[in-house]
């Protein structure tokens, strides 16, 4: 049993090395984010520009992010908010991008369990609502069952 656990850990470690430090002609070069992810203020983001038929509910989008060893994006400062807003493009068929903000017990909460610290960023919380990031600078409270594109986020690699 212990051998299997060690093998799994080695496999995960190798995956991380390969994802963040791909082999090139001159050896390995480590990046803060794996290929296909965007770096901003110590975090990595992937923007999922899903068209109508591939858009997801908030829970489905979160599950997709978890499959990428991440979660829906948590935005803790103005720079991160600006970054996600700039990457919430206006594309035909996309009305917004899920971020990791949901109403729980009458309060806006991030997927990491922290409370929203800037109430000016979005309207008052209503149960059953989740947040989308919109092109042009704002966030919108919508039903968590709506289908949208989404933004995954995770901490950047620091070496």
Automatic annotation (TrEMBL):
Annotated ranges, domain C-type lectin: 40-153
Domain of life (superkingdom): Eukaryota
PROSITE patterns from the UniProt entry: C_TYPE_LECTIN_1, C_TYPE_LECTIN_2
GO molecular function terms attached to this record: carbohydrate binding
Keywords, sorted A to Z: Disulfide bond, Lectin
One Pfam family of this chain: Lectin_C
InterPro entries per UniProt: C-type_lectin-like, C-type_lectin-like/link_sf, C-type_lectin_CS, C-type_Lectin_Receptor_IMM, CTDL_fold
Keyword Disulfide bond: yes
Coiled-coil ranges (or none): none
TM segment ranges: none
PANTHER family with a match to the protein in the record: CD209 ANTIGEN-LIKE PROTEIN C-LIKE, KILLER CELL LECTIN-LIKE RECEPTOR SUBFAMILY F MEMBER 2
Protein's name according to its UniProt entry: C-type lectin domain-containing protein
Species classification: Eukaryota, Metazoa, Chordata, Craniata, Vertebrata
């Amino acid at each position: 049993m212990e051998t299997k656990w060690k093998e799994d850990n080695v496999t995960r470690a190798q995956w991380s090395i390969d994802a963040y430090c791909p082999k090139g002609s001159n050896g390995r070069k480590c990046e803060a984010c794996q290929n296909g992810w965007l770096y901003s203020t110590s975090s990595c983001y992937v923007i999922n520009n899903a068209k109508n038929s591939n858009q997801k509910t908030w829970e489905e989008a979160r599950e997709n992010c978890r499959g990428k060893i991440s979660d829906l994006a948590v935005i803790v400062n103005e720079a991160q908010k600006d970054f996600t807003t700039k990457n919430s493009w206006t594309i035909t068929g996309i009305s917004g991008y899920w971020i990791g903000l949901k109403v729980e017990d009458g309060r806006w909460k991030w997927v990491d369990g922290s409370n929203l610290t800037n109430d000016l960023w979005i309207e008052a919380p209503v149960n059953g609502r989740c947040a989308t990031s919109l092109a042009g600078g704002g966030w919108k409270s919508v039903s968590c069952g709506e289908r949208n594109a989404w933004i995954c986020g995770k901490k950047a690699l620091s070496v």
